[in-house]
Design a protein that fits this description.
The chain is an alpha+beta fold and 539 residues long. The chain has 17 helices and 19 strands. The chain is globular. It binds protoporphyrin IX containing FE. This is Acyl-CoA dehydrogenase/oxidase.
Length: 539
């Protein structure tokens, strides 16, 4: 800020009353004269003798997230002429957090890891900077307002320069010939690169927005990649990777969740045998439809919303009963016979969760993936990757909650002591650290196995370990969330403000313990898979 106007602290001291109120935060001078009456914490606190006209960085950072300064940058009028070292350094876009355990060990410059090489590191640096600079602000605002991710941003993410929609599909020939962020060649891309992209996105702390951004495609597109004909791939993939079109996975129904055998949506073959005619309904379909809202640029600090049609999935990868004992997966294109309706969940509406209704929808027989009656095979082939993505996600969200809570425990004083000085708080933090680091280490081990196995072998050999890993991570997330809320107190159950991410996590971590198979189902699957490998000889 070379051209900033400079003030002495004595000059700032003069502006210390109602209607003429300045103060200093992190060496920046703010004029709050007209903002004081709108200050969410009230005008009174700002007019206190130790605040008005003073350097109040310590008071500020014990009550606000640093993002408040970005949001209210318009109140900044200059800088102190003799700055003191900033007591609360704010991370620049792309920087690693200096908070202990806030980053996975492989990002600690003093540590080594057998799993990551220079290509993973350069990709990590590139995407972190991009997410911090281009995505973070929108993600946090839209998470709260329920708005869809903006068209401009999803399209930018789909440009060949960023190729983020392609990377979220994992390694494969869809990346061939591309030069990815950080100079990584598409052919070098492995599951650790994908893990890096997922975990960097999670740092933004906006789970509903993140689901609305890419979740439909991550679970809805693999059948096209793995079972689609070349003609289907040519027609569908480029538009989805460029974010011109969107796809959702449509399996669950009011009577069938993880239990795909209970699916009731059904289809009859047309008389000429060229189409399936589909009728039925699907529930909890991510990205099915977004709230028809758009933010208006009003003077209010809170987002104001007004009706407008939003964009939504153009394709539904749908599980359909094609006979009494026959389940098929088909790619259904949205037309007038397909209706979507918003479902409100504890996630942000930015996820676009919806009901999908099919009423006599005509689907060309060529749109059946993997052959008629092979729906279960197609669904199962997808599950491992979906569960692994969820594992990457919970592991990183849990770490972010730890970072927030660790910082808070250093800031917050109770009965004259910082929270971190209380053994009971340190004990809770210790439990968080070992759960987070155990989860990440197990996740990296499973990921390493994936890099050395075919897709089919992953399903056969890793379904059990993956199911147990997901159960461990989502159970741990519940315990971490609970301990975080206890440390944050009222702020952990208050939307917005210092504890915003903690409140959001305790409201949303359950998604990961249900989606892709509930904890109970997966724990049982993990054990049953191990039972199959039990040799008779040892009994
Ligand atoms: C640049 C100066 C400031 C701005 C832009 C600002 C803005 C805000 C905002 C947006 C909130 C709502 C909560 C949040 O989003 O974090 C808030 C809350 C609050 N602010 Fe400020 N504030 C400033 C300085 C101060 C200072 C110097 C104090 C001194 C004590 C203060 C005391 C409070 C209090 C007590 C709350 C309520 C916190 C709570 O509910 O936990 N603010 N402020």
């Amino acid at each position: 800020m070379a051209s900033a106007k400079l003030f002495t602290l004595e000059q700032v001291n003069q502006h210390n009353k109602e209607g003429d109120l300045w103060l200093v935060v992190n060496n920046d001078v703010y004029d709050l004269s007209s903002f004081a009456d709108m200050h969410p914490g009230g005008a009174g606190v700002l007019l206190a003798a130790d605040i008005a006209g003073q350097d109040c960085s310590t008071a500020f950072f014990s009550l606000h997230r640093s993002e408040v300064l970005t949001k209210y940058a318009r109140l900044k009028i200059g800088r102190l002429d003799t700055p003191s070292p900033a007591p609360y350094p704010i991370l620049q876009p792309g920087e690693l957090s200096p908070v202990p355990y806030a980053e996975p060990d492989w990002l600690n410059p003093s540590f080594r890891s057998p799993y990551y090489n220079d290509t993973h590191r350069s990709l990590q640096r590139a995407v972190r900077k991009f997410f911090d600079e281009e995505v973070k602000a929108e993600a946090r605002v839209h998470e709260l307002s329920g708005e869809r991710p903006s068209k401009e941003l999803v399209e930018l993410m789909g440009t060949p320069q960023w190729a983020l929609h392609q990377m979220r599909m994992g390694p494969g020939k869809h990346l061939a010939g591309l030069t990815l962020p950080g100079g990584v060649k598409g052919e070098q891309f492995d599951y650790f690169h994908e893990l890096v992209v997922i975990q960097e996105l999670c740092r933004l702390g906006a789970p509903g927005y993140m689901a609305g951004l890419q979740a439909g495609q991550i679970i809805g597109l693999p059948p096209v990649l793995n079972f689609g004909t070349p003609a289907m791939q040519k027609r569908v993939l480029p538009d989805i990777f460029a974010a011109k079109k969107f796809i959702s996975l449509a399996i669950s129904e009011p009577h069938a969740g993880s239990d795909v055998q209970g699916i009731q949506t059904s289809a009859k073959l047309s008389e000429d045998g060229k189409h399936w005619i589909v009728s039925g309904m699907k529930k909890w379909i991510t990205k099915g439809v977004f709230l028809p809202f758009v933010r208006l640029n009003g003077s209010s600090d809170l987002p104001r919303l007004a009706p407008r049609s939003g964009y939504f999935s153009d394709y539904f990868m749908t599980a359909v009963r094609t006979g009494p004992k026959s389940l098929s997966m088909m790619l259904i294109e949205r037309d007038d016979t397909v209706e979507t309706r918003k479902i409100r969940t504890s996630y942000s509406s930015a996820a676009g969760t919806a009901y999908v209704f099919f009423e006599g929808t005509k689907v060309p027989v060529e749109n059946v993936l993997g052959g008629e009656g092979n729906g279960l095979k197609v669904i199962l082939s997808n599950f491992n990757h979906e569960r692994w993505v969820i594992c990457c996600r919970i592991a990183r969200y849990s770490r972010l909650m730890f970072e927030e809570t660790w910082k808070w425990a250093h800031l917050r004083k109770s009965q004259g002591k910082r929270l971190i000085d209380q053994p009971v708080v340190r004990n809770k933090l210790a439990k968080m650290i070992y759960k987070i680091d155990m989860g990440q280490a197990w996740l990296e081990n499973v990921t390493y196995q994936m890099t050395h196995m075919s897709y089919a072998d992953q399903s056969a050999l890793l379904a059990g370990p993956m199911a147990l890993l997901k159960t461990f991570l989502s159970r741990s997330a519940g315990e971490i969330s609970d301990d975080c809320v206890q440390i944050w107190g009222g702020r952990g159950i208050t939307q917005g403000g210092m504890g915003a991410l903690i409140e959001q996590f305790q409201r949303t971590y359950k998604f990961d313990s249900i989606l892709g198979g509930s904890e109970e189902v997966l724990a049982d699957l993990g054990v049953r898979q191990a039972m199959k490998r039990m040799p008779r000889a040892v009994l």
